[in-house]
Amino acid sequence: MPRFKPVKPSEERVGEETNNDIDIKVNSEIDILNRYIKKVQTDLSDLKYFFKDREGNREFITRDIDNIGNNLRRSMNKLYDISLYTGMKIDERQDLLFKVDLEFHQNGEHLHIVFPDLLPRRISDRSPVDREHIRRMYYPSFKEYFSNNGSVIYFQKAVIIYTHFFDSPDKMVDHENFETKVVTDILTSYLFKDDSPKHCAILMDYKIGEKSHTEVDILPFKQMKDFLKEHSPTPKQA
């Protein structure tokens, strides 16, 4: 069953526009979206070629990655514009296009969250990955979980431990506070008074695993020593 009510062809007007007006606009938006996708396909083809000599073509590789990222962002924004004509509510449209499902495991005061992939990284200052993009991806899952299950409010100091798993040592890269800050802000809105050092410590760790992804653990600061012993991480202060 569809999650939204489509516009009926029999309706002569939707607001001030006829269905024919809407068809023309939607077709125009789809044509623009198609152009963005073709640009991505072209740059991907070039990227394959340039990677044959990655050292000599570093400048072209960076350019193509930047172009692909920007056109993917434009594609998602354009798809969002097209969804305006479906009759879906704003939250439904955002969830459909951006929501990433997360796994939540609560054990007393310890909350464990599994992300299906690594947190998105900003490759350069011009990278299309911005904080609002990351928030749109993850906030719906946090909101759904805490609305249905409530939340443990940490009145005493707690710790957030970000663990980034990589499926190969060659793929290990350093994550910036840029990526984790959005998730920390979301967690703070549900769990903490604020994310100042007085109330919350933040650690980051890097491990090799079967699949590249990120996991987050939130627990009372006084339990951190036992947690680190059990999981044997070598966290880096964020």
Architecture overview:
- The protein has 238 residues and is α+β, with helices and mostly antiparallel strands.
- It folds into 2 domains: 13-93; 99-237, 60s Ribosomal Protein L30, Chain: A.
- It contains 6 helices and 8 strands.
- It has helices spanning 19-50, 58-83, 90-98, 131-149, 177-191, 224-231, and strands spanning 13-14, 17-18, 103-107, 110-114, 158-166, 200-208, 213-220, 236-237.
- The chain has a 6-stranded mixed β-sheet with strand order 3-4-7-5-6-8, with no helix packed on it.
- The chain starts with 12 loop residues before the first strand and ends with a strand.
- The model is unreliable at 1-14 and 233-238 (pLDDT under 50).
Task: Explain briefly what this protein structure is.
The protein is α+β, with helices and mostly antiparallel strands and 238 residues long.
